[in-house]
Every structure is written in C-alpha cells, then in structure tokens.
Amino acid sequence: MGWFDYICSSHIIYPRLVKLFYANLESSTSCISNSFVLGTPISITPDLVAETLGIPNEGITHFNDISKMEALGICLEQPNVNPLMNVTSSHLPIASRIILLLVTNTFLPKEGSHTLPSERDLKFVACVKNGTPINLPYDDDDDEDDPQQFEMRPSAGPSSSSSSRPSMESLLARMDLAQADIEYLKGQMNQFSEGQANILQGQADLRQGQANIIQMLQNAFPQHPSPF
Predict the structure, then answer these.
(1) What range defines the domain where residue 85 resides?
(2) Residue 124 lies in a domain
(3) pTM, 2 dp
C-alpha cells in the first residue's frame, strides 16, 4: 500500500523536542496539529505527514465500515468466531501476528502490553489482509497522557532572576535542535558531494566516449604517409 519505505526508514529521534511539541499542543477538533517548540510555530497537516513519511494520503481513516466480528474472522482466518472470545496475539496466525506487531509498534504505537490487541488494532490488521487502503487515522480512542505533566510554558507570575533563566530541559532541547540542524546539513553536504562525484564521473565518461569516437574514425579512415 505504499508504506514499505516508511517501515524500513530509520531516523534520529529527539525525545525532548517531541515532548515539547506535545506539551504545547493546542486543542483542536480538526486533523491539523498546531504547536510550537522553542518559540518556533509548527503546524502538522495530513498532507505534510504523508509527504514527510513518503506514504500516500489516501484510503480510509476510520474503521466504521468493518465490524468487529468481520475483523476477527479475517485476522483469525476462521469463518465462525465466538464473539465473546478474548483474542490475544497468540491466537493469531503468523501472518496476522506480524502485521499486528507492525500496527502496535509502528503505525499506531502504544504503551503497555502488545499481546492484547484493541478492536481498532484488529480492524487495522483485517484491512491490511483484505487489501483495503488505509490512511493515517485522525483520532485516537485511547486515553492520552495529561500534557500538563510535560508543560514547559513560562509561568505568568512575577519574574525573578531565577525564573528568567532557561531551564535545563530547555537547554537540552536547544542542543537537540542544534544537533538536528547539524545532521540536516550533513545530509545536504553528502548529497552535494554525491552530485559533484556524479558530475565528475559524467565528464570522465564523456571524455572517454569522445576518445572512443576519435579512435573509431582513425581506424575507419587511416591516414597514409604522403609519398612526397
């Protein structure tokens, strides 16, 4: 479904910057996330997520069209399923179990045990198995952590010499941001170096091609020494 490159991707993650983003996340009923990190406003839209991760922005975002019983039948590969059955990952065939691991670790990551899939997890697995295109879901049914525990906004009280100083968390986050900029510049320099190498190789190939053409012409029209 166009998600293979995303599954195989590996990038450096900066947890402190991620924590700041979620701590300052604005409440919204839309699928657009607005926040800021170290004074920089950030707006994340579905199109931006699709472009950044290299995945298609198409397919279903909710699983209302598939029932739990239907999802269980597809996941367990059984036509008749007990609706009261408490399904764990050990009940699933190997193919469904592998897809479930991808769902709970990559697509819809969650804390805690991964052996007890939620209804949404099972429906996600079922859609993958029956070939239904899936988009990133825009809502999360699970209980979210209270963002106040990570709140980094300055207090509204009277300022003092101690409160005006940047916190250690803020300094570490700035270091992470600087490191991310360095990694980005390294990537740009590597692309530039590869581009230069390709240009030089192309020039060398062109010169070799010219030499080959000249040699072919000399072989086809040999120049004999003048008798005079």
Answers:
(1) 61-138
(2) yes
(3) 0.47
